[in-house]
Amino acid sequence: MQIAIKNKILRLELGDITESAADAIVNTANSALAGGGGVDGAIHRAGGPSIMEECRKIGGCPTGSAVITGGGSLYAKHVIHTVGPVWRGGGKNEAELLASSYRNSLKLASKHNLRSVAFPSISTGAYGYPLEEAAAVAMKAVISHLSENELPEEVTFVLFGEKAFNAYEKVLKGMNL
Ligand code: AR6
User: Least C-beta-crowded within 10 Å: which of 3, 104, 141, 164?
Assistant: First the structure.
């Protein structure tokens, strides 16, 4: 599914983000940039050791922020590492921190003149954020960036499994854009 936002594109896809050929793919990192499971494990496995070497030099990334490295042997030339919030029931500023992860990732993409970015569903795996609530925050943050900035021109959510894809599709259709 894809929709136009001004002259830009917002797309939902089912798949594995490590196979994306976007200019940058976004990693669901932890604040130590230490690697882990889920998207993080898959990106470091597919991209090779140079990504972790760069992460070690950067040293860390607070929740809601983002940093950028090269893409190693991935198709994507860059990896934007962001740290989403751990879900603690919804009363610990999780929505604002999750929105901030998307906003800061997109700001980095703009700053580096990147035309296309692929996001996974940040925080909805190991960090336990409920899917539909996360999808609403994610889409709102991305749409607002696409409406107000020249770059990136294309944002794709690469969703791992029907459950995530269906949740994002339901939320996007419900936004009546
Ligand atoms: N492509 C796209 N989406 C994926 C892939 C993939 N290859 N693999 C998993 N997902 P998670 P988080 C989905 O756990 O919740 C790590 O250990 C997955 O189904 O990757 O932000 C880090 O080091 C889920 O919907 O990220 C952190 O410690 C979504 O991606 C912590 O987990 C996010 O799942 C971050 O947790």
Answer: 3
The tens digit of pLDDT for each residue in 25-84 reads: 999 999 999 999 999 999 999 999 999 999 999 999 999 999 999 999 999 999 999 999
- Nearest atom within ligand 1 for CA of residue 16: 1
18 C-alpha to ligand 1 centroid (Å): 12
Contact predicate 165/14, CB 8 Å: yes
Number of structural domains the chain divides into: 1
Q: What's the whole-model pTM score?
A: 0.98
Residue 120 lies in domain: 2-174
Buried b (16+ CB within 10 A) or exposed e, 71-87: bbebebebbbbbbbbeb
Q: Which residues are catalytic?
A: 40
CATH value at residue 142: 3.40.220.10
